[in-house]
Amino acid sequence: MTFSQLSAKKVSWSIGDTRIVDNISHAFRAGAVTGLLGPNGSGKSSLVRLLSGLNSPASGLVELDGRSIGSLGSRQRARTMAVMDQHHGTSQPTSVRQAVALGRIPHRSLLGGEHVVDRQIVGSVLSALDLTDFADRDLDTLSGGERQRVHIARALVQQPRVLLVDEPTNHLDIKAQFDILAILRQVATQAGSDNFSGTEAPTVVVALHDLNLAARYCDQLILLCEGRVVAAGKVQEVLTPANIRKVYGVDAAVMSHPVTGEFMVALAPLTHSAQTDQAHPVSQQRAATRGSEAAHSASVPAR
Amino acid sequence: MTAVKQVDSSAHYVPPVDHLVRGGFAWRRVLVTSGVLCALVVTVVFTVMIGPAQLSAGEVWASILHHLGLGGFAGGVEISALRDAMVWELRLPRVLTAGAVGAGLALCGVIMQSLTRNPLADPYLLGLSSGASLGAVIVLLFAVGVALPIAAFSGALLALVGSLTLARSMGAVTPVRTILAGLAISQVCSAGVSFIIFWSASGDSYRQVLAWLMGSLGGASWSTVAIAGGALVVIGVPLMVSGNILDAFTFGEASAHSLGIRVEAWRWGLLIAVAVLTGSLVSVSGAIGFVGIIIPHAVRLLVGTGHRLLLPLSAACGAVFLMWCDTLARTIFDPREIPVGVITAAVGAPLFAFVLYRTKAGEA
Ligand SMILES: Nc1ncnc2c1ncn2[C@@H]1O[C@H](COP(=O)(O)OP(=O)(O)O)[C@@H](O)[C@H]1O
Ligand SMILES: [Mg+2]
């Protein structure tokens, strides 16, 4: 297996006195899709912002190609890594082609204009993501799924080796969710193609909510809770009923899909007996956190 | 969509030729650009020939060519010293000041709208115009021994510093906080202006103050050309190269960062450059409204939202627009002159409505 260009080393980040990201270390795998899972507020977006260099860690280090991301020039960073954040609206009427072409900005000088090569790359990514027919439409006229494809296309024309994506499937219908993640998978597994610089396999990191989407499309998972890594590794190792119950406070059963035979998770609210058997584990943890920081971190398996 | 095509298979995809040339729009841009440049030349040539004083076109150009040391091309037209001064000391500097102010305001409007991602943003957003007005009113009414432009420029800069300080005191300086702080400072300065006028203005001085508040080019001279034109060349021209940067801000600051832009440095650098340029323009003309809002929208309708073309074309259109508006202001109620701000509002408001209508139609 190949470890990629991107790694987090004991990264922490706080707002005021609140730890939002707590001592996270992970070497992201190249040629693979790594899913970031965790409930709302668990720190997925914050981690993505740290990995992208948008925020600087309070302690620890994010490394890209063996260098601290803060020490890389902005343009150099943007040629290596593309980020698709959670929110992106614009007040200006913007065509699909224009929105996608923005991804070429890191590849030109301050005054440089669009070259034939830029247009070729934009054209080929548009066609790869089935957007050619929409190229001259205004972004506002697209469906949610089409619009997300546009934002992915913008990240792809940056020709990055590392792609960070924050909750790309929000508000999309089921088919569109599958489509988006299928695209991200293809990106991760297309080492050495023309759409990417260098011959190394790209690294894709995606924050997700849906456990079954994660199970189906990710190679590696990181499960976050209150800014800490609860579990990380292969899908089956991370998505255990115990982990899911601990982090999300719901009952889970893992099984094979009746038709495809793939690994899947079935979820249900905690049953009454389960609740009395064992108090809600997350609130237990919260109490522990307040009581003693050390006691809590001891209870989380170190990775 | 049918199925996600294999990204792999398209790696060697060669786009069809029409993607590369993109016929319609490219031609349109060339046409619009040449049209605007022609309009700029035509406007300068014609607006200097129009005015309350009955000067023939031959006289006007003889005077100008003579002063430019090109008297040989003037065709032997003789002109009296008085009439020569009317052209060289009044009309030409006024047309040039109008052009520089219009170009600068439109340019600043584009940048403010783009940075704040607010289509209603204008160059005066950070309390600049109210601050300048306060400075100007103090000088006009209290006979303080300071030149009007200096007082107005100082007022604008003090308002800028006040807005930024206020924004900072609220915590992290975000664009929204900056705008709100600007609004607060703007209100305070306006209250000051109203109070001073109410307290001490009368008759003629009132009219003079009002003219300044509405924006007027009546005081144009070669020194206003130097101030407005100088600011335009020193600050405005370098700002025109920020096209790629402003494009990168299309989807907000996080996405600009992802595109390799140093967001903080560019945001503050552009904001302060815009403020200083606007302050210089306001100091010679007062706060002329509408140019900074309307021109960027109109030009976007013509050539789209890409800033590399939008910036210089907006500047050119702003110049053309204000030169014609000021020509109207000088002549329409001859022999009386009205503040050009009245004309830009009268012409600008319907134009704005039209642009809104077209923009909406385009979106539908
Ligand atoms: N800029 C911020 N200011 C205050 N709190 C923040 C900020 N960014 C994140 N947080 C807090 O950090 C926690 C983690 O947020 P986030 O990373 O967005 O979680 P997720 O993406 O997993 O839902 C939340 O409790 C959120 O309220
Ligand atoms: Mg989030």
Architecture overview:
Chain A is 35% helix and 26% strand. Chain A has 303 residues and is an alpha/beta fold. Chain A has a single domain, classed as 3-Layer(aba) Sandwich (Rossmann fold), CATH 3.40.50. In chain A, the strands form 3 sheets. A 6-stranded mixed beta sheet of chain A has the order 6-7-8-3-9-10, sandwiched between helices. A 4-stranded antiparallel beta sheet of chain A has the order 2-1-4-5. Chain A has a two-stranded antiparallel sheet with strand order 11-12. In chain A, helix 11 packs across helix 12. Chain B is an all-alpha fold and 364 residues long. Chain B has one domain (95-363): ABC transporter involved in vitamin B12 uptake, BtuC (Orthogonal Bundle). Chain B has 15 helices and no strands. The longest helix of chain B is centred in the N-terminal third of the chain and has 36 residues, at 81-116. Residues 1-24 of chain B have low confidence and may be disordered. Bound molecules: adenosine-5'-diphosphate and magnesium ion (MG). Adenosine-5'-diphosphate binds at residues 15, 20, 38, 40-46 of chain A. Adenosine-5'-diphosphate binds next to helix 1 of chain A.
What is the topological layout?
The complex is a heterodimer of chains A (303) and B (364).
Chain A: E1 3-15, E2 18-29, E3 33-37, H1 44-51, E4 59-64, E5 67-68, H2 74-80, E6 81-84, H3 96-101, H4 116-128, H5 144-157, E7 162-166, H6 174-189, E8 203-207, H7 211-217, E9 220-225, E10 228-234, H8 235-238, H9 241-248, E11 250-256, E12 263-269, H10 272-277, H11 281-291, H12 293-299
Parallel strand pairs in A: 3-8, 3-9, 6-7, 7-8
Antiparallel strand pairs in A: 1-2, 1-4, 4-5, 9-10, 11-12
Helix pairs in contact in A: 4-5, 11-12
Chain B: H1 17-21, H2 23-47, H3 57-67, H4 81-116, H5 128-142, H6 148-169, H7 175-200, H8 203-214, H9 222-239, H10 243-248, H11 253-258, H12 263-285, H13 291-303, H14 307-331, H15 340-363
